[in-house]
Each structure stands twice: as C-alpha cells, then as structure tokens.
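Good morning C.,

I know you're traveling, so I'll keep this short. The sequence:
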Amino acid sequence: MADGKHSIAPRGPAEVLRAAKWSWQGILAAWRVESSFRLEVYLFAVFGPLGLWLGEGAIEKILLVGSLLLVLAAELLNSAIEAVIERYGPEQHELAGMAKDMGSAAVAVLMLNVGLCWGLILWPRLPF
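The tokens, ready to paste straight into the viewer:
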C-alpha cells in the first residue's frame, strides 16, 4: 500500500513531488535497460509532433498522440512485470513465461490500436 495503513490525510505537495520523482526514476530505469522502450520513445519523438500537426481538432490530436502514449505506458508496465519476474531468478517457470508473454501482448495490442487510430483518421485524407 502506498499510503500508510491508517492514513486518511490527503497527499500534500511534498508527497506529490516525491511520487513524481519516483515516476521519473522509473522512466530513467526503463530508458537504461529496455531497448524496446528507447525505440518507442524515438518513434514517439517523431510521430507525436506529426500527430499534433496532422490532427484536425482536439479529438483527432488526442487519438493520434494518445495512442502513442498508451504504448509507452504499456511498455513500462511490461518492463515492470519482467523486472519482478527476473528478481526471483533465471529459472524457467510456466507462469513467469505466461506473464511475460501477456505483457508483451498488451504492448502489441496497443500498437495495433496506434495503426487503427492513425489509419482511420488519415486514410480518408489520402488523395486517391
């Protein structure tokens, strides 16, 4: 549990800043050890601004850029799952393999979502 067992006090600015620091540490850790995350950040650096430019109106921009952000979030969660599994040792276990595969599948599904969003929004604009 992130908050104390009997804590009913709302988070203050210091706790929010501490949580932001931990989030940033997680992003940096993923950057250091996960080549897939780095590749997806590079793709976001290209396609994020492109999505803002090509999107007509706020909804399209949110769909184009937001779908890319979801891939990054899923990759972070997948990396977290893998880190926890690796923490318990290198031996093979059916459930560990299944968890890693499911995390990878989540990233793949969100990549399909990117293709779907971008395709459905931009395909009708192509001059055929």
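Safe travels,
E.
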